Amino acid sequence: MTFQNTREFARELDSQDTLNHYQDEFIFPKVNDKRVIYFTGNSLGLQPKRTKAYVDEVMNDWAELAVEGHFYAQKPWWDYQERFAEPLSKIVGALPSEVTVMNTLTVNLHLLMVSFYQPKGKRYKIICEEKAFPSDQYMFQSQVHFHGYKQEDAIVEIKRREGEHNIRLEDVLAKIEEVGDELALVLIGGVNYYTGQVFDIKTITAAGQKVGAKVGWDLAHAAGNIKLELHDWNVDFAAWCSYKYMNSGPGNASGCFVHEKHHNDANLPRFAGWWGHNKERRFKMEPTFDPVHGAGGWQISNLPVLSLAPYLASVEMFAEVGMDALIAKRDHITSYLEFILHEIDKEVKGNFEVITPSNPLERASQLSVFLHGEGRSLFDYLMKNGVITDWREPNVIRLAPVPLYCSYEDMYDFGQILKQGILEK
Ligand SMILES: *Cc1c(COP(=O)(O)O)cnc(C)c1O
Q1: Quick one: which of 229, 259, 224, 254 has its CA closest to 240?
Q2: Which atom of ligand 1 is nearest to the CA of 105?
């Protein structure tokens, strides 16, 4: 399709978009009395209107039933997490028994590393990507220290080549091969938070396992954004947060995945708690831990139901939309945004560079734009004029044209505001 940088053309695309009406399902902040163009759904998704009813339901059940709500609430609290299994497993390509929701992302990755990072003898190294999300870096450092290793030795980063913005698959595979029988764990962000690069999860997982390592994924920027087939790809474990593309609200609960092949391994170490105990016998208050055979066996505490309620609202919306429809629009609107950026760049010599891969197979709902020459003042101009983006040092804005609530006309309007911002300087 040949794109055009006109309002008419953008409106035509909106009228053909089968997900267009989902915009009305969300609450947008306003700037200057106009709803904003929201590009930061990769950081905190917008609030769906239907969410409040899910939270109110828990509040009302608590008011009316108090402790009895554990068993008699409209959605009983004691096994509230099980309502996620079916819809969430479809979003990440898993069996229902392989997913659960609990805690928050970094906490879950730590807990999963207790099970899947078991350094022994010469096999103790972790491969991750260079400039991983800071929380992941702190996690790796503290985990290797906990096991008595030095981080310079035990953490192996895959680097970008000189002058390149993205990591090459061949370099990941070569590094795995090189570390070989010293490799205990590969743990990478499935979609890089800074550049938006999507990694080939299937190929990297197979390569890591071939040399005898476990392979896990931080899917913070992947869940609800890219097509995942965690079961078929034989991923050992994964975790994600729900407040980015999954619109569950600030700091909310994390989802996690543990492959079926590990469910009956009684030798796996783990940090246990009563919510991971055999469901039928949970309230018998027995002294010996008997884990649920599934991801639920990694549960620890009874559930923060008030925070799971918005997550459930979101998961049900995703189930209704389906990842395939979402991904089709995602690719199209992302290409349109890329086109708009190039057009504006030509018109006003913006001199910006998209550092996200241009190959649609290596990117998802994010374009990271390096502003050569422009800087923070342009970002401030956008914010003042109702375009919410985010700023990353040294000179990058990240734009996530989230398919659930961004329109093609938003992309056009953004282009015009961007152009004005450059001209006014
Ligand atoms: C957002 C993000 C996190 C955040 O972790 P929390 O524990 O939810 O604060 C971790 N890792 C990556 C890659 C992220 O993008």
Answers
A1: 254
A2: 7
